[in-house]
Amino acid sequence: MSFHVGAAIMAAAMLVRPQAGTIIRVPEDFKSVQAAVDAAPPGAEVVLAKGVHAGPVDMRGKAITLRGEWGAEFTSLLGGDGVIRCMSGEGPDTMIEGLTIAGGLGWLCKDGLRRGGGLYINGASPIIRRCLIVGNEADRGAGVWLRGGVPLFEDCWFHDNISEQTDGVVCEGVAPKFIRCGFHEDGVQWTDAPVVSIRTDCESPGGACCLGSTCVETTLESCVSANGHWHETIPCSDTICPPACLGDTNADRRVNHTDLLNVLNNWGMCR
């Protein structure tokens, strides 16, 4: 009799345990986002209901999808020391979709600086799609701080991320890709990064574009619109960008009367 009772208990436990490919809903199945992520098996989706949910959330290295059911306009993940953290070797099977990521203050590091107010990504390569990264703060990388890995940002918008020491997105020794992303008053700063790819899509041919002394892999159209110097389809790894030419207002690698006329034409107070 005891064997049958024990077997019944084990069978019931298996029925309620989340399985791969299942959908775990917050707050219906779990009250907190972190609890749902902790319970999610590989391949599961953690779906956040319309409204505001509390951060921070550590993805725990899991190959799962974290998404807002109604999209970023109606689903927010708010607050915490780094609203979302990927620091356990997450790969492209870790996906974050359709969320507003806001109100983060950054992960407090050993040097006393806070990094990655919205997203703290260290040694990981997740995919972030259709997200709004807005209103975050940190000492370095208020919107996103990246180190190591090849994370992909697609159809994301960065705005009003405040960092006193650096830009809104900081890349340190990492090669991220930004596809169809917008940066409104948020700059991108990278250090020892082999390639930062900012493109409109993955299908059109990309190549090296020199923006001053910095190389960015992008399309010809994007390079020209940014007043960059296009190097055909040669990758940045094989391109040497010349040092910045001070006083060159029209990016023709010369300082002459044309640059002087540009300055005189725009003389006065900046708006």
How many domain modules?
Answer: 1
The CATH class label is: Mainly Beta
| Strand order, largest beta sheet | 1-2-5-8-13-16-19-22-24-23-25
The gyration radius over C-alpha positions equals 22 Å
Low-confidence stretches: 1-16
What order do the helices and strands come in, and which of them pair?
Blueprint: H1 2-16, E1 23-26, H2 33-39, E2 45-48, E3 51-54, E4 57-58, E5 65-68, E6 75-80, E7 84-86, E8 95-97, E9 100-104, E10 107-108, E11 114-115, E12 119-122, E13 127-129, E14 132-134, E15 144-147, E16 152-154, E17 157-159, E18 169-172, E19 177-179, E20 182-184, E21 188-191, E22 196-199, E23 207-211, E24 214-218, H3 220-225, E25 229-230, H4 257-265
Parallel strand pairs: 1-2, 2-5, 3-6, 4-7, 5-8, 6-9, 7-12, 8-13, 9-14, 12-15, 13-16, 14-17, 15-18, 16-19, 17-20, 18-21, 19-22, 22-24
Antiparallel strand pairs: 10-11, 23-24, 23-25
Descriptive account of the structure:
This protein is of the alpha/beta class and 271 residues long. The protein has one domain: 3 Solenoid (Pectate Lyase C-like). The chain contains four helices and 25 strands. The strands form four sheets. Strands 1-2-5-8-13-16-19-22-24-23-25 form an eleven-stranded mixed sheet. Strands 3-6-9-14-17-20 form a six-stranded parallel sheet, with no helix packed on it. Strand 10 and strand 11 form a beta hairpin. The longest helix has 15 residues, at 2-16. The N and C termini lie far apart (84 Å). The model is unreliable at 1-16 (pLDDT under 50).
